[in-house]
Design a protein that fits this description.
CATH architecture: Super Roll
Oligomer: single chain
CATH class: Alpha Beta
Number of strands: 9
Number of helices: 4
Order of helices and strands: HEHEEEEEHEHEE
Number of domains: 1
CATH topology: Bactericidal permeability-increasing protein, domain 1
CATH superfamily: Uncharacterised protein PF07273 family, DUF1439
Strand content: over 45%
Helix content: 25-40%
Structural class: alpha+beta
Radius of gyration: 21 Å
């Protein structure tokens, strides 16, 4: 009886072999680099028109918090308020939680939390202190709609994982997707 149970369990575990894909920070940062230079629109009602052009962006996985990513970036905020135009060079750090969307076959960052920001130009107006946290949070909400990595359907492993990914784990410097075949 024990040997039959062993063979049944062995057969099930063999039939359901794990598929694993490990993505490094470098791979995610290369993907994020494709967004550099893009301008992201930000709206905070009729009274404010703004855009943020991303100059630098990178992600660090599981270093500050075990299950989160830290997203650091620098951008230029172009703001128009009541006929006055402002240009601010700003750096910001966010904490975000990676999420895999099986339907899209893509990795997203959700639950952005603004950790800190810095104005890099010393001649920034007093409005910057009030408006910039709102703009940065709007930018985070906007970025959460775009994947940081999309599985490559030409790669057999990644194609299989798109439909079978069960777990997402983060360790310092890398993220692992695991699924069953």
């Amino acid at each position: 009886m024990k040997s039959i149970l062993f063979f049944i369990l062995f057969g099930i575990s063999t039939a359901l072999s794990a598929q694993t894909l490990t993505l490094t920070e470098q791979q995610l940062n290369r993907q994020l680099a494709t967004r550099l230079g893009q301008e992201f629109p930000v709206t905070l009602g009729d009274w404010l028109k703004a855009g943020v052009r991303i100059a630098e962006m990178q992600v660090a996985l599981g270093r500050q918090e075990a299950d989160k990513a830290r997203v650091s970036g620098r951008g230029v905020v172009l703001l128009e308020q009541g006929g006055t135009r402002y240009d601010w060079d700003i750096s910001g750090d966010f904490s975000a939680r990676p999420r895999f969307d099986r339907e899209q076959g893509a990795l997203y960052l959700d639950e952005f939390e603004l950790l800190e920001y810095r104005l890099n130009n010393s001649d920034a107006s007093p409005q910057a202190g009030f408006v910039l946290p709102l703009l940065l949070q709007s930018l985070a909400d906007y970025l959460s709609r775009y994947p940081v990595y999309r599985l490559d359907e030409q790669d057999p492993l990644q194609k299989r994982l798109k439909d079978s990914a069960l777990t997402l784990t983060i360790s310092p410097g890398q993220l692992t997707l695991e699924g069953l075949q």
